[in-house]
C-alpha cells in the first residue's frame, strides 16, 4: 500500500516538464530503492522496550502529552533564572546577548519582538525546549520542578500569567499565548504566484 | 639590463598602482593580481623527480577553498566558498555548516536510532542495522532557509559582500542512505499517523516535526556524503535528508523518530523557522525552498582586468523539482537572455548555468533569474517585499545583482536597483 503510494508519486513527478539539457535516463528512480524481491520485513534491528523508549521520549506536545509530575512558582523561577539563565538572557530576560525572552510590542508592529510573549504560540514549547537544550552549557541540569518554575517566571514577566501562578502538567498546556492564532499554514505552492 | 630585476620592478610598480587604485581589498585579490602580473619563478617540473603515492591526497598548494567561519559560538554557521567551486558538487570539507549547539562527538558503534510512537513494532537500530538495508545514492542540495538574508534588508543592502558571505549556506552532495520509507515499513506505521518527530543527538537535541507524507516520499536516512561517510559537521553518523526542504528540518546526528498524529510544535518550528508576514500572521512549516539562482562569477571582490569575453556563471536550484530555465541580464533586468544549463538537470539539486558575455567596458549590472518546473519564476526583491513585508526572516530567494563598474570593480549591486 505504502509502496504503491511512493510509486504513484514518482509517476506524477515524471510527467513534469523536463528541460532539453537533462538526461532523465541517468536518474535512478526512488521506486528502485526497494528491490522487487524485498521481504515484507527484513527483521534488522531490535524491538525497543517501553523502558528504552521512556529513556529518550522527552518531547512535550501542545496538549501537555509528555509533561512530567512536578510544579513550580514564579518566585522559585526567579531564583532559577538568576542562577542559570542571566548570563545569556540578561537579568530581566530582555538584555541578551542571546535571545530576548521577555517583552511584547504592540501588535501593530508585528512582529515587534520575537519574544515568548510576542511570538511564541505554545507555552509547552518552553518545557520541551528547556529539557532539550537549556542551560546551553549544562543542558539537562534542571529538575522538572525547576523547569516549571522558570517557565512560570518567564510567562509572568511577559504578562501572560499572574504573580501567584503555579505551573504544572495541568496548568502549562492551558496557558493562552498571545501569538497563538497568528500562525498559519504555509500557502506557497510553486506556480506563477509569488507568496 | 637584467630581465628578472626589470620584471620584478615592473610587477611592484603595477601592484603599487593597483593598491593605490584600491583594487586590492583582500589577500585573495593580492594573490589573484600577483598571478596576473608576476612571471612564475617555479622550478621546471620536468627536471625534478616527483613525489610518491600517498594514502590520502591533498589539494594543490595554491588551491585552498575555505569556509567562511566567523563566529566562534555554539550556535553558529559557516559558508561554502561558492566563488571557488566548479560544477555543482561541494567538496565535503567545505560543505556549509549550521549548528545550534556545536558538533557532537559521536562514536558510530554506539549510535542508535529509536523509532517508536504510532507504529506496530517500536524498534531500535544500530548503524550496522541501518546500513544493511537496500541503499540509494542521490544528488541533492541543502540550503539553510536563512541563506541570503543580506539581499533582503531594505535599509542595509550591502555592496562589499562576497557571494560566499551572501549565499554560502548552500551546498550540494551525493548522499547515500536508506529511504526512510523502508524503515517505516519495517516498524509498521499505524492508521491515523500523519507526522513524525525527528530528533538529533547534539546538545540542543534539535527536533522538527515532519509530515509523514514527505517521510514516505523521498526522505533518506543518509550516512554517505560524496562517496565516504558523512562528515561530523553534516550529521555523522546519520542525518535525515528531506530533499528540497530547508536545511534545519533535515535533522543531523539523528537518533530518534516518533511517529505521531500531530506536530510537536518544537522551538525550531514555532519561535524559529517561521515567517512573519506583513498581514500580521506567521507562516509555519514553510519547508520547501523555492526556486533561486545566484551568480558565482563575476562577484565581489573580483576585478575584471579587461573588457571582452567573460563567462557569467552560477547555480540555480528549486525544492519543487527541476529547474527548467535560467535567464541572465547584463543591463539590470531590462533585457534577459537564456543561460545554458549544464546537464544533467536533476530534481532538488543545483544546476550550473553559464552565459557567455562580451563586456564593452561600460558599467553593467548582471543578474540571474531561475524558473522551475511548476512555472515559478524567481521573484524580484520588490515582489517579495510586497508579498511578505520587511520582517520575514527566512526564504530570501529573490534575484541578486552584481554591478561591474567601468574600471572592472565588481560589487553587490542590488541596492542600486531598489
- How far is the first residue's CA from the last residue's CA of chain A? 35 Å
CATH superfamily of the largest domain in chain A: Cytochrome c-like domain
Q: Which structural category do the helix and sheet elements of chain B fall into?
A: alpha+beta
Shape of chain A: globular
Approximate strand percentage of chain B: 25-35%
State the distance separating the first and last CA atoms of chain B: 55 Å
Coarse structural class of chain A: mainly alpha
Structural write-up:
The complex is a heterodimer of chains A (195) and B (418). Chain A is mainly alpha-helical and 195 residues long. Chain A contains seven helices and four strands; from the N terminus they run αβαβααααβαβ. Chain A has a two-stranded antiparallel sheet with strand order 2-3. The N terminus of chain B is likely disordered. Chain B has three domains: 38 residues, no CATH class; 187 residues, Sulfite Oxidase, Chain A, domain 2 (Alpha-Beta Complex); 126 residues, Immunoglobulin-like, CATH 2.60.40.650. Chain B has a five-stranded mixed β-sheet. In chain B, strands 6, 7, 10, 11 and 12 form a five-stranded antiparallel β-sheet that branches. In chain B, a hairpin with a 2-residue loop joins strand 10 and strand 11. The interface between A and B is large, with 72 and 88 residues.
Question: What keywords describe this structure?
Answer:
heterodimer, A: 195 residues, mainly alpha, Cytochrome Bc1 Complex, Chain D, domain 2, two-stranded antiparallel sheet, 7 helices, 4 strands, disordered N terminus, B: 418 residues, alpha+beta, Sulfite Oxidase, Chain A, domain 2, 3 domains, five-stranded mixed β-sheet, 24 strands
Structure in a nutshell:
With 195 residues, chain A is mainly α. Helices cover 32% and strands 6% of the residues of chain A.
How is the topology of this model organized?
The complex is a heterodimer of chains A (195) and B (418).
Chain A: H1 2-14, E1 46-47, H2 50-56, E2 71-73, H3 74-84, H4 86-89, H5 124-133, H6 144-157, E3 166-168, H7 171-174, E4 183-185
Antiparallel strand pairs in A: 2-3
Chain B: H1 3-20, H2 27-37, E1 68-69, E2 76-79, E3 97-99, E4 112-117, E5 123-126, H3 127-132, E6 136-143, H4 163-167, E7 170-179, H5 180-187, E8 195-200, E9 207-211, H6 212-217, E10 220-225, E11 228-229, E12 239-241, E13 254-260, E14 275-276, E15 282-284, E16 292-297, E17 308-317, E18 323-329, E19 337-338, E20 340-342, E21 351-359, E22 364-372, H7 381-388, E23 401-404, E24 410-412
Parallel strand pairs in B: 4-13
Antiparallel strand pairs in B: 1-2, 2-3, 4-5, 6-7, 7-10, 8-9, 8-13, 10-11, 10-12, 14-15, 16-17, 17-21, 18-19, 18-22, 20-21, 22-23, 23-24
Amino acid at each position: 500500500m505504502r509502496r504503491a503510494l511512493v510509486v504513484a508519486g514518482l509517476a506524477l513527478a515524471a510527467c513534469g516538464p523536463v528541460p532539453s539539457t537533462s538526461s532523465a535516463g541517468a536518474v535512478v528512480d526512488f521506486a528502485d530503492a526497494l528491490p522487487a524481491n524485498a521481504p515484507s520485513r527484513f527483521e534488522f534491528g531490535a524491538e525497543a522496550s517501553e523502558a528504552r523508549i521512556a529513556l529518550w521520549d522527552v518531547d512535550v506536545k501542545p496538549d501537555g502529552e509528555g509533561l512530567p509530575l512536578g510544579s513550580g512558582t514564579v518566585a522559585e523561577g526567579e531564583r532559577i533564572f538568576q542562577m542559570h539563565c542571566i548570563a545569556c538572557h540578561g537579568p530581566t530576560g530582555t538584555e541578551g546577548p542571546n535571545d530576548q525572552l521577555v517583552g511584547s510590542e504592540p501588535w501593530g508592529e508585528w512582529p515587534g519582538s520575537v519574544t515568548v510573549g510576542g511570538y511564541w504560540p505554545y507555552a509547552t514549547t518552553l518545557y520541551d525546549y528547556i529539557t532539550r537544550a537549556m542551560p546551553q552549557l549544562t543542558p539537562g541540569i534542571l529538575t522538572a520542578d525547576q523547569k516549571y518554575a522558570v517557565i512560570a517566571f518567564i510567562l509572568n514577566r511577559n504578562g501572560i500569567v499572574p504573580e501567584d501562578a503555579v505551573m504544572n502538567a495541568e496548568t502549562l498546556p492551558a496557558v493562552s499565548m498571545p501569538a497563538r492564532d497568528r500562525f498559519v499554514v504555509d500557502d506557497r505552492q510553486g506556480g506563477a504566484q509569488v507568496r | 639590463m637584467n630581465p628578472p630585476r626589470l620584471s620584478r620592478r615592473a610587477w611592484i610598480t603595477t601592484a603599487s598602482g593597483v593598491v593605490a587604485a584600491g583594487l586590492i581589498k583582500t589577500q585573495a585579490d593580492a594573490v589573484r593580481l600577483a598571478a596576473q602580473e608576476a612571471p612564475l619563478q617555479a622550478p621546471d617540473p620536468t627536471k625534478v623527480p616527483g613525489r610518491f603515492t600517498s594514502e590520502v591526497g591533498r589539494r594543490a598548494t595554491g588551491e585552498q577553498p575555505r569556509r567562511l567561519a566567523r563566529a566562534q559560538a555554539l550556535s553558529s554557521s559557516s559558508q561554502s566558498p561558492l566563488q571557488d567551486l566548479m560544477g555543482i558538487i561541494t567538496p565535503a570539507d567545505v560543505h556549509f555548516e549550521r549548528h545550534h549547539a556545536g558538533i557532537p562527538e559521536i562514536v558510530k558503534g554506539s549510535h542508535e536510532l529509536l523509532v517508536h510512537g504510532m507504529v506496530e513494532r517500536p524498534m531500535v537500530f544500530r548503524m550496522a542495522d541501518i546500513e544493511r538495508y537496500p541503499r540509494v545514492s542521490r544528488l541533492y542540495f541543502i540550503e539553510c532557509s536563512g541563506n541570503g538574508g543580506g539581499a533582503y534588508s531594505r535599509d542595509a543592502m550591502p555592496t562589499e559582500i562576497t557571494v560566499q558571505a551572501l549565499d554560502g549556506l548552500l551546498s550540494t552532495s551525493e548522499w547515500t542512505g536508506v529511504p526512510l520509507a523502508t524503515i517505516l515499513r519495517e516498524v509498521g506505521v499505524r492508521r491515523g499517523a500523519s507526522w513524525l518527530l525527528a530528533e538529533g543527538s547534539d546538545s540542543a537535541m534539535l527536533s522538527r516535526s515532519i509530515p509523514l507524507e514527505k517521510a514516505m516520499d523521498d526522505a533518506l536516512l543518509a550516512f554517505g556524503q560524496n562517496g565516504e561517510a558523512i562528515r561530523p559537521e553534516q550529521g555523522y553518523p546519520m542525518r535525515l535528508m528531506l530533499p528540497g526542504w530547508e536545511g534545519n528540518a533535515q535533522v543531523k546526528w539523528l537518533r530518534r523518530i516518533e511517529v505521531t498524529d500531530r506536530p510537536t510544535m518544537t522551538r525550531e518550528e514555532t519561535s524559529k523557522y517561521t515567517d512573519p508576514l506583513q498581514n500580521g500572521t506567521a507562516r509555519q512549516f514553510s519547508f520547501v525552498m523555492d526556486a533561486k539562482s545566484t551568480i558565482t562569477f563575476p562577484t565581489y571582490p573580483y576585478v575584471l582586468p579587461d573588457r571582452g569575453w567573460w563567462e557569467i556563471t552560477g547555480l540555480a536550484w528549486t525544492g519543487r523539482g527541476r529547474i527548467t530555465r535560467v535567464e541572465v541580464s547584463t543591463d539590470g533586468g531590462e533585457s534577459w537572455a537564456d543561460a545554458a544549463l549544464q546537464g544533467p538537470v536533476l530534481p532538488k539539486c543545483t544546476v550550473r548555468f553559464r552565459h557567455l558575455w562580451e563586456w564593452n567596458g561600460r558599467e553593467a549590472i548582471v543578474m540571474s533569474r531561475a524558473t522551475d518546473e511548476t512555472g515559478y519564476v524567481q521573484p524580484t526583491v520588490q515582489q517579495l517585499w510586497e508579498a511578505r513585508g520587511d520582517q520575514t526572516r527566512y526564504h530570501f530567494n529573490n534575484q541578486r545583482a552584481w554591478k561591474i563598474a567601468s574600471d572592472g570593480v565588481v560589487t553587490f549591486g542590488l541596492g542600486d536597483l531598489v
